[in-house]
TrEMBL record:
It is an enzyme of class 2 (transferase). S-adenosyl-L-methionine binds at N28, L30, G55, E76, D101, N125. It catalyses: adenosine(1518)/adenosine(1519) in 16S rRNA + 4 S-adenosyl-L-methionine = N(6)-dimethyladenosine(1518)/N(6)-dimethyladenosine(1519) in 16S rRNA + 4 S-adenosyl-L-homocysteine + 4 H(+). InterPro entries: KsgA/Erm (IPR001737), rRNA_Ade_diMease-like_C (IPR023165), rRNA_Ade_Mease_Trfase_CS (IPR020596), rRNA_Ade_methylase_Trfase_N (IPR020598), rRNA_adenine_dimethylase (IPR011530), SAM-dependent_MTases_sf (IPR029063). It comes from the Bacteria. Its main location: cytoplasm. This is Ribosomal RNA small subunit methyltransferase A.
Length: 287
C-alpha cells in the first residue's frame, strides 16, 4: 500500500477525485508516518481489539489501525471521501467504512454484536470543531469503552489534563477527570499536517473508569456547581456560587463551612472531590 502520509500521494488522490480540503469538516491530514504509528501505540491497539475511528480522512490512520487491530469501524462524515477510502483501504479486509456524522450515530447499534465480545477502543484524529462534544459524549455514555486516544488541539488537551491552581484547569478538566484517568501522551507540531493548522496538537489517552472517580449524589447539581465556580474566574468561590446557582448566600456560606472550605478562595484551587463534597452538602438543601 502507498504511504498516505506522502504529500504527493495526498495531492494525487485529491486531484483524481476532484477534491479539496474541507474547512467545514476540519480536514487536516497527517504527513508524518512516525506520528501515525505513535498514536496507535499510545492507544495500545492489539490484535484482539475492536477499534472505532472517528474521521477517516483518506485512511491514513485507518491503515495502521487495520494492521494492529482485529476489526476497525471507521466513520467519515464527508461523502466525497468515501470513494477515496474504498481505494486506499481496499487491502484492509478488517475495516468497515461508514459514512455518517458520529454525533448523530447510534454507536451501540453500529458496533452491534461485537459489543461485549471484543475490547472497544476509540482512536481518532479529531476535527477541532467537535472535539469536546465527542469526548464528553463518549465519557458520559454507557458503552463499555476500554480507552480513547485522540489527537486534539493542544489548548484543549491541556485544559482536559489541567490540575488545580493551573491556568489550564477548569470545568472541562474536572468533568473529564470525573469519568476517566487521563494521560497527555505527546505533542504534535502543526507542520506535520496538510494543510497546516494554526495551532499545535497533542495526543491524549482516556482510560474510562468503571465508576466515577468520586461519589456524587446529584450529578446535575455537581456539574452546575463546577460550572458556576469557573464562569467568573476572578471571582471568589462564594461570589461565583452566589451569582450562578439557585442557592442563597447564607446557605452557601454554611455549606462551605461544613466542608472546611474558605469562601474567599477561587474555584480553580479546588479538586474535583472537593467540588463533589460541596455539591453533596448542597443536595441536602434541595426540597
Amino acid at each position: 500500500m502507498e504511504k498516505l502520509t506522502s504529500p504527493h500521494v495526498i495531492e494525487t488522490l485529491l486531484k483524481k477525485y476532484d477534491l479539496h480540503f474541507n474547512k467545514r469538516f476540519g480536514q487536516n491530514f497527517l504527513i508524518d508516518e512516525n506520528i501515525v504509528r505513535k498514536i496507535v501505540m499510545a492507544g495500545e491497539v492489539d490484535t484482539g481489539d475492536l477499534v472505532l475511528e472517528i474521521g477517516s480522512g483518506i485512511g491514513t490512520l485507518t491503515q495502521v489501525l487495520s494492521e494492529n487491530a482485529k476489526k476497525v469501524v471507521t466513520v467519515e462524515i464527508d461523502k466525497k471521501l468515501i470513494p477515496v477510502l474504498h481505494e486506499t483501504l481496499r487491502e484492509c479486509n478488517n475495516v468497515e467504512i461508514i459514512q455518517g456524522d458520529i454525533l448523530k450515530t447510534n454507536v451501540r447499534e453500529l458496533l452491534g454484536d461485537d459489543i461485549g465480545k471484543l475490547p472497544i477502543k476509540i482512536v481518532a484524529n479529531l476535527p477541532y470543531y467537535i472535539t469536546t462534544p465527542i469526548i464528553m459524549g463518549f465519557l458520559e455514555s454507557d458503552l463499555p469503552i476500554e480507552s480513547m486516544t485522540f489527537l486534539i488541539q493542544k489548548e484543549v488537551g491541556e485544559r482536559i489534563c489541567g490540575g488545580p491552581g493551573t491556568k489550564a484547569y477548569g470545568s472541562l478538566s474536572i468533568v473529564a477527570q470525573f469519568y476517566a484517568d487521563i494521560k497527555l501522551d505527546f505533542s504534535v507540531p502543526s507542520h506535520v499536517f496538510i494543510p497546516r493548522p494554526k495551532v499545535d496538537s497533542v495526543v491524549v489517552t482516556f482510560k474510562k473508569l468503571d465508576s466515577p472517580k468520586f461519589k456524587v449524589e446529584n450529578k446535575e447539581l455537581f456539574l452546575s456547581v463546577v460550572k458556576a465556580s469557573f464562569l467568573n474566574r476572578r471571582k471568589t468561590l462564594i461570589n461565583g456560587l452566589t451569582m450562578n446557582t439557585i442557592f442563597d448566600k447564607e446557605v452557601l456560606l454554611k455549606v462551605l463551612e461544613e466542608c472546611s472550605i474558605a469562601p474567599g478562595i477561587r474555584g480553580e484551587t479546588l479538586t474535583g472531590s472537593e467540588f463533589a463534597n460541596i455539591a453533596n452538602h448542597l443536595n441536602n438543601y434541595i426540597n
